[in-house]
Amino acid sequence: MDKHITAPITKKVSRTLRAGDYVYITGTIYTAREGRSIGSAGSTTASCRDRYALKLLDLGLTAMIGKGKRSPEVLEAVKRNGSVYLAAVGGAGALLSKCIKESEVVAYNDLGAEAIRKLKVEDFPAIVVADCEGNNLYETAIKEYQKI
């Protein structure tokens, strides 16, 4: 199902999203990845951020965007905290950057592409991978494909 949502994403909204939903995000998001307001906006391999994600989720983080699988601990924290894990299509960074209207470094400028940025986005496309009910598209999609 296609859903247009506004960021920052509230718990009320995150609890309505289900694995497999297509979302289009408009509003303000923060990232630790990198003419237009920003260069390539490709998502990072999410699992390399898992050690930070647990604490952030427990502190109230409602949604994360990445592209790869997450650890069982992070998936449990997503469920426990009523959050969601979204995936942006890997390899489409140049296309995704067209949805970014403004970019501002807010911390760690010396890290370059890894600096923390505040982004204003419009209809930024993502797919809900893991939802607050424990559904995980990366697992269910494999099972569906195996049936074929």
From TrEMBL:
Molecular function in Gene Ontology: fumarate hydratase activity
Enzyme class: lyase
Fe-S hydro-lyase tartrate dehydratase beta-type catalytic domain mapped to chain residues: 22-140
TM spans (from-to): none
UniProt keyword annotations, A-Z: Lyase
Coiled-coil ranges from the UniProt annotation: none
EC number: 4.2.1.2
Origin superkingdom: Bacteria
Pfam family, one: Fumerase_C
Family recorded in the similarity comment: Belongs to the class-I fumarase family.
PANTHER family in UniProt: L(+)-TARTRATE DEHYDRATASE SUBUNIT BETA, L(+)-TARTRATE DEHYDRATASE SUBUNIT BETA-RELATED
Descriptive protein name: Fumarate hydratase class I, aerobic
Organism: Clostridium scindens (strain ATCC 35704 / DSM 5676 / VPI 13733 / 19)
